[in-house]
Amino acid sequence: MIFTPTEIPEVVLVEPKVFPDPRGFFFEAFHAEKFAANGLVEPFVQDNQSHSIRGTLRGLHAQRLQPQGKLVRALSGEIFDVAVDIRPSSKTFGRWVGRTLSAENRLQLWVPKGFAHGFLVLSETADVLYKCTALYRHDDEIGILWNDPKIGIEWPLEGEPLLSPKDAVAPRLAEIRDRLIG
Predict the structure, then answer these.
(1) Distance (Å, whole) CA 119 – CA 177
(2) What phi, psi does 176 have (nearest 5°)?
(3) Which of 3, 122, 156, 166 has the greatest number of beta carbons closer than 10 A?
(4) Is the pLDDT of residue 16 over 90?
(5) Rounded-to-integer distance, Cα 51 and Cα 126, Å
(6) How far apart, in Å, do the first and last CA atoms of the chain sit?
(7) pLDDT at 39 over 80
(8) Which residues are catalytic?
């Protein structure tokens, strides 16, 4: 596995070593010792999977009191995956990192605690799996508006995204800054 820090070094792109043969391929998606050797030591306690159609934008989501680290990958299709630093004391507060993850490239993105997460489906459909370091708590979830102009995420959109009702009316980062921790 290759672990490559992004422009925000805590967000890491994970590239597996793939072993193809005439039957198909094999790769390790997670290996605790290899992750730990690269500084990613928190245990995973919950796996989530979603299925979405082209143009669906899920996010930006985080948990405030019990933040989750997330290891994200596309099992099928292609997504543009985004992590936004929401740690008020961080020098990269409000900055974002985005990467294209697909079943074809098999890349994974490590989104650490203290980051909001979201993704846009680029293919006809996509199945996304993410491993979490903390359990989901509905009462702890916070959302940030996907197109907050202060963050300025460059989503590769064609038209308007498909949003959940709560994502469509999420607050801007500046509106919730005083509620954030870190």
Answers:
(1) 22
(2) -115, 5
(3) 122
(4) yes
(5) 6
(6) 30
(7) yes
(8) 61, 130
